[in-house]
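Minutes, project huddle
Topic: does the predicted pose make sense with nicotinamide-adenine-dinucleotide bound?
PN asked that the exact inputs be recorded in the minutes so nobody has to dig through chat later. Recorded below.
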Amino acid sequence: MNRLEGKVALVTGATQGIGRGIAELFATEGATVVATDVRHPEVYAERIAFAFLDVTDEQQWAEVVGEIDARHGRLDVLVNNAGIIGYSPLDTLTSEEWESVIGVDQMGVWLGMRAVIPVMRRQGGGSLINMSSAWGVIGGEGAHAYAAAKGAVRSMTRNAAVTYAGDNIRANAVVPGWIHTPLTDAQPRHLIKRIETFFGRQPDYEKLRSRGQLELASYLSPVMEETFRGRGHWNNAPMHRVLMSLFANAPAIW
Ligand SMILES: NC(=O)c1ccc[n+]([C@@H]2O[C@H](COP(=O)([O-])OP(=O)(O)OC[C@H]3O[C@@H](n4cnc5c(N)ncnc54)[C@H](O)[C@@H]3O)[C@@H](O)[C@H]2O)c1
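Predicted holo structure (tokens), as shared on screen:
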């Protein structure tokens, strides 16, 4: 379809899972993609270059964005996708888990937006896409640091959208559907059971991926938050009804 022809995109956490799917989709749509991660990938498709980037390291952000700018003269899309999860509820959460999850999932998003905004402003616009989570919208169970970070990502995204609207820089948060990737491998059994009562059986990322990029991408973009708010269920509907109404609006592929 080439909807991203001529665009340059940077995707974080793109060695596997959702980030890899986004990088591949963007490349299919004609973008030049710089896929970054702390782990080296298997081979990527054409149009995808790899750069090492730990999103918690501001020096590495400066270097990677500087290199993209020097090589391509622009950077149109940043996808802040890298994420980690810890499942501890707040009473057993350690400071170490808190700092590491907040570092990657929240601070990493801020550092990324901060690094690319000067380039986007100079070229007259750009698009910031930040991965939030249902845990940042409806609360979720356990995973306290993750819920805190993903909630913060939503407000940071709104703040960025308002602050940089005059620079023609858009900011959006995406709330992916529940999908089996390496990130969710460590989910406690009891939590999986409870999530399944709301979301149904967890679909497998690799299986969706093999069925086609567009199908995968449409699943990953149910625009959960907007539907949630738009339908006015924010405060008082039973959670299962809210969740079902959200998925009624999402592509039915599982
Ligand atoms: N899978 C789901 O059901 C789901 C649901 C809601 C939100 N999300 C969010 O979507 C994003 C991607 O999740 P996923 O399921 O594909 O996870 P994943 O574990 O498969 O991929 C995450 C990637 O981030 C990378 N990463 C970790 N720490 C990093 C760091 N410091 N710097 C750079 N990269 C780092 C990992 O190496 C990995 O490649 C995450 O932000 C996650 O919170 C996932």
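Observations noted during the meeting:
- Residues 95-123 form the longest helix (29 residues).
- The first strand starts at residue 8 and ends at 11.
No decisions taken; revisit at the next huddle.
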